[in-house]
Every structure is written in C-alpha cells, then in structure tokens.
Automatic annotation (TrEMBL):
DNA damage recorded as keyword: yes
Residues of the DNA polymerase Y-family little finger domain: 241-345
Protein name: DNA-directed DNA polymerase
EC number per UniProt: 2.7.7.7
Length: 493
C-alpha cells in the first residue's frame, strides 16, 4: 500500500484564469466574459465575479446571456494565451518549491514536502501565496493535504483549508462526491443512489459500486485517500539557446569576429539539432573593452540549424561594427526558434530550397524580410480574390494553384469597351485603339460570391472570353447579361 503521509501536496486552482489575464491589463468593474465559438454558437468561456453575480455561467450561449444581462461586456477568448499564462504562473510557483506541475487547464499542483519551513510553516506559505496572487489580480483557491486528490478536493470545494497530516479521511468525508474528480455522469448516478458525500461512498461496499460505475470510481477514491499513488510531473524548463565566448585578448578585425561567430554557431546549432529546432532570429552581442556593447540581429527566411549557412549570412551584419579598442566577449542567442524535425529529403530539392531561403534572407537584410513577398493561392473563383500576397519568409508555398481555365498574367480594374452587341464583338475600341478580333474562346461564366459584399460584383454574373486581336493584344473580356456591356479585365502574356 502506498503511504502518502510523508508528502504534503498543495493544489492551486484559478477559477477565472482566462478573464483575470485580460482584466489585469484592462480592468472592468461591469459584468465581463470571454467568448469562445463552439460550432456555430458563441458561448461564455470565462466570467468575472460581476458576471457570475448576475447568474451567468460558463457554457451559456452569448445570446441567452445578453438577455439576462444586457450590459455584459465581452472579448474573444484566446486559449493559446491562456496556456502561456498558466505556464508563467507555473514558473512563478517554483519560488516556493522546485516540484511544480500543471493540473488541467486552470490549476497547479505543488509538492511542498520539506520546503514549507522556508516560509515559516504551511499556513504562512499559503497566506503569502494567496496575498501575492490577490495583489496581482488573480483569483486563486488553495488546498493542502497528504495526497494530490485530497488537495484538489479541498481547493475546489473547501478553499483555504489545510488537512492535517494523516487526517485526509476526516477532511474529505463531508465533501461532495464531485470532489473526487469524477465525470458528470458518474456524479449524477451516485447522487441518484443517495451517495452525495465522500463519507457515504467510503461506507458503501466497493464491489457493487465497481460493477456499476467501473474501476475508475474506486481508483479516484483510493488516490484521494492515499491508497493508490499519483505522481506529480513537473514541466521541464525550455532549453536555452544561447552561448558565450570570452576572449583572452581583444579582437577588432572582421575575420577574427567571424571566426568567433563560427565557434559560437557550432555549439548553438548542435543544441538546436538535439532538440529538432531551427533558429529564425539570432542576436549577436559584441562587448568591447570599454564595456559598451553592440548588437547584430539576423532574421532568417526559414528555420536553420546549419552553422556554415548561418555564418555566411552574418557576414554583412558585422561590416558596420565599431570595434573601438577591441572586442573581448561575444554572445550569441537564438531569440526565436521553430520546430525543424528531421525528414527524408532529396539532395536536389533540398539544395534548391536552401538556396532560395538564403537568397530571401540576403535580400531581406537589405530591404527587410517583410518586403520580400510571394503570391499564394486563395480559395476563390473570383479572379481578383484567387490569390494572396504574403511575406515569403513567413508563408510556405504549400498550396496548389487550381486553374481549370487560363488566367491572364496581368489583372486590372474592368475597363469599358466600345461595343453594344451581346455577342463577342469582331470590331471594338479599347484605350482609344480600334481592334479586330481574330480568335475568340469562351464563354466562362462566373457568379459572384454572395457571402462577400464586393462592389465590383454587384452587377451579377459575368461571361468571360479570351480574345486575340490582329493588333497583337490577347485580352480577357467579359460581358454582363443583366446590364449589357463589354469590359476588359486582363491581358495575357
């Protein structure tokens, strides 16, 4: 049997973690809630105390909530930011003990065994922790017991309470069965049998309960009582991608600085490859003997972990460095890192892709990476909305251009054509030129996308034709049947 009496587990629950994160930066006294879209419905994700006082609850539809509380203020939820915020709180909690793990999406669990005396005892530690969180504007509920399950139960159903060592049974007996971290269906089934408190569950024979509700019910009960071990897995600290080189003698020539960078990159890239990561932004700090520092930032078009390629890209950045009386220390850090898993690749394709990435980086060093752009396909049959323009360094050309019909190389706003026939005109004027159609292909009928209110397409459907003229023009023309008229919208190469 597992004996948990020697351990002391502290559970930290943040009931309004998401809303507290937002309100710390922009306090609001009125009812406030974060909204998360589920399917086709906006639902309340996290509420402040004022909104809960109005009878609103998590999971309620936003339209229903506004009917109850017309002055409810809302903002979109951001689950990724909430995860980062909880990770920040986890790192903060390591000031009390080194063994801190995540407990769901809104809680922490701390193994404070042997560390409470550093804070004057368990009660003083809990009081100090609660005071700091309150000053930071974060609502928190604490529970302390011998086991993780018992500490969680106290934090959620008897906040601020600390069970004495060995007294977890008496501390849990009067708590509802939901304090055992059971599914909602199991809690409802137990309540229908009249088993509303954990004490009632303990006094009931185990075999019938296990047959009806499964082994999970008994496992949760044994974990809370300390009869079944439950581990606390602390999150590992993220790797630090930085290295430093202190020189015995100052250097000042560009070749010497490059040699130092190559040594730093060898160590840094080795660590990046160990973690299957690549650097996107690197920061080089050069410290001079007069204690002044200069920084060189290198932004890459693609994640890299090849020291030779990165060193070649650093060459331009250090040309304007003022070494003064000499540089005695170099520090190199990857400030932005992205996953770069190993993959099976071909030599030819890899070389072409690498050369393109290096070219984009070199051009970006001169004009900025955001100014090197590429076209990407978009899911639209409307010509002017069938593509996107995005920075080449931050957009992968993974989409496929689906063109069932040829499209012109140049597109421009529709320009009227002097022709009044419903059929493709053989002779017409465009841009003050008299043109003769020699070859005509079409039509291709395009309908407007009704879900977008595009003023250029309010006229309705269009019939497009490819017209090759005797004067050398290859035009993309369309006719609007509902409002008869001919227009040119593009020119083929």
């Amino acid at each position: 049997m597992f004996d948990g009496r020697a351990r002391r587990i502290l559970s930290l629950w943040f009931p309004r973690l998401a809303s507290d994160r937002v309100l710390r930066a922009r306090p609001i006294e009125a009812p406030f809630a974060l909204v998360l879209r589920e399917g086709n419905t906006d639902r309340l994700h996290c509420l402040n105390a004022a909104a809960e006082a109005q009878g609103l609850g998590r999971g309620m539809a936003l339209s229903e909530a506004r009917a109850f509380c017309p002055d409810l203020q809302t903002a979109p939820a951001d689950p990724a930011r909430e995860t980062q915020f909880l990770e920040t709180l986890r790192r903060w909690a390591t000031r009390y003990c080194p063994w801190v793990g995540l407990d769901g999406e809104d809680g922490l669990v701390l193994d404070i065994t042997g560390s409470d005396h550093l804070w004057g005892g368990e009660e003083a530690m809990m009081a100090e922790m609660a005071a700091r969180l309150e000053r930071a504007g974060i609502a928190a509920r604490l529970g302390l017991a011998d086991t993780r399950g018992a500490a969680w139960a106290l934090a959620h159903f008897a906040p601020g309470r600390a069970a004495a060592p060995g007294a977890r049974l008496s501390a849990l007996a009067k708590l509802p069965v939901a304090a055992l971290r059971l599914p909602h269906e199991t809690v409802t089934g137990l309540q229908r049998l009249g088993l509303r408190e954990i004490g009632d569950l303990i006094r009931t024979p185990r075999a019938p309960l296990a047959r009806r509700f499964g082994a999970g019910l008994m496992a949760r009960l044994d974990q809370a009582l300390g009869d079944l071990p439950e581990q606390i897995s602390p999150e590992p600290d993220p790797p630090h991608y930085g290295t430093r080189l202190t020189l015995p003698e100052p250097i000042g020539q560009q070749a010497d600085v490059m040699a130092g960078i190559e040594r730093l990159l060898a160590r840094l890239c080795a660590k990046l490859r160990e973690n299957e990561a690549g650097a996107r932004v690197l920061s080089l700090t050069l410290r001079r003997v007069d204690q002044a520092s200069q920084q060189v930032e290198l932004r890459l078009a693609a994640p890299l972990s090849d020291p030779a390629r990165i060193a070649a890209l650093f060459a331009r950045g250090i040309e304007d460095i003022d070494a003064g009386f000499g540089i005695d220390q170099l520090r190199l850090a990857a400030t932005q890192v992205e996953p770069l898993p190993a993959r099976q690749i071909g030599a030819i394709a890899t070389e072409r892709r690498d050369r393109l990435g290096d070219l984009i980086t070199r051009i970006g060093l001169r004009i900025g990476l955001d100014n090197v752009q590429r076209y990407l396909p978009a899911d639209s049959h409307i010509p002017e909305r069938s593509f996107l323009i995005a920075p080449a360094a931050f957009a992968d050309p993974e989409g496929h251009w689906h063109q069932p019909h040829p499209r012109p190389l140049r597109l421009f706003p529709p320009e009227p054509v002097d022709a009044d026939t419903p059929d493709p005109p053989r002779r017409f004027r465009w841009r003050r030129q008299s043109l003769t159609a020699e070859r005509i292909e079409g039509p291709e009928r395009l309908l407007p996308e009704w879900w977008f209110d595009d003023p250029n397409w309010r006229g309705g459907m269009r019939d497009y034709w490819r017209v090759e003229t005797g004067q050398g023009w290859r035009l993309w023309m369309f006719h609007t049947p509902q409002d008869p008229g001919w227009y040119v919208e593009g020119v083929f190469a």
